[in-house]
């Protein structure tokens, strides 16, 4: 095991710690960690991230279920269009993206570059939701249920985004469940985990059919991330996750800016 791999496993522990401490957002670090530190291309990195996110969310779902904070009926209903979109995205859309979108002079927008820039844009949106205290705003908003066909369309859109970037998308699913499915905020957070678990693992199945997976590395990386979650949940008894979330939001914003700068230079 070389020093780069050791740093990668330390990074996995940090991802888990963040997830355990603030309840979300940590998975968005997985792709940059795999790409820029461990040298994986974005397609492989987003695939591995889906597995890590799915396994981690499964642990989180169990923890929330013990507290009665998971609405399985709504979660499964919402996850159907999402996991179909995630699977189709990983199985057909991502492999079908051209290696080069376009070229202007010496500049070429490649597939890998496009995925990372799109990922950075989603990171910026996620950072905004953390910095602006979305939780408080959602608790104060008036929720109304909507026809299922609208939920279906929204699930497809969010699932497609999740499939492309390889992150859980909790920052998208939680407001969707609160504003569109009329679920209380705390239960929406727990319910989003079952959706993320199903989406991520089914999306990864699409990758297994098209990519060569380094199972030993992936399982060790995922196991360390899960240990980080368990440790983070323990530490959350002594550290305020809400106070950390805003600072982490700024960190994500800086990371997103770095990714865009690195990809365009």
Describe the structure.
Belongs to the 4-toluene sulfonate uptake permease (TSUP) (TC 2.A.102) family. Its main location: membrane. Pfam families: TauE. It is found in: Cell membrane; Membrane. It is a multi-pass membrane protein. The protein is mainly alpha-helical and 265 residues long. A hairpin with a 2-residue loop joins strand 1 and strand 2 (107-110). It is globular, with a radius of gyration of 18 Å. The protein has one domain. It is 77% helix and 3% strand. Strands 1-2 form a two-stranded antiparallel sheet. The longest helix is centred in the first third of the chain and has 25 residues, at 42-66. The chain is built from eleven helices and two strands; from the N terminus they run ααααββααααααα. Helix 4 crosses helix 7, helix 4 (72-96) packs parallel to helix 9 and helix 8 (170-180) crosses helix 9. 46% of the residues are buried.
Structural descriptors:
globular, two-stranded antiparallel sheet, 265 residues, mainly alpha
Strand order across the biggest sheet?
Answer: 1-2
Overall pLDDT, averaged? 83
The beta-strand count equals 2
Provide a count of the helices.
11
Proportion of residues in β-strands: under 5%
What's the domain count? Answer: 1
Shape: globular
Bin the helical content.
over 70%
- Main pleated-sheet profile: 2 strands, antiparallel
Subcellular location: Cell membrane; Membrane
Protein name: Probable membrane transporter protein
Membrane topology: Multi-pass membrane protein
Keywords: Cell membrane, Membrane, Transmembrane, Transmembrane helix
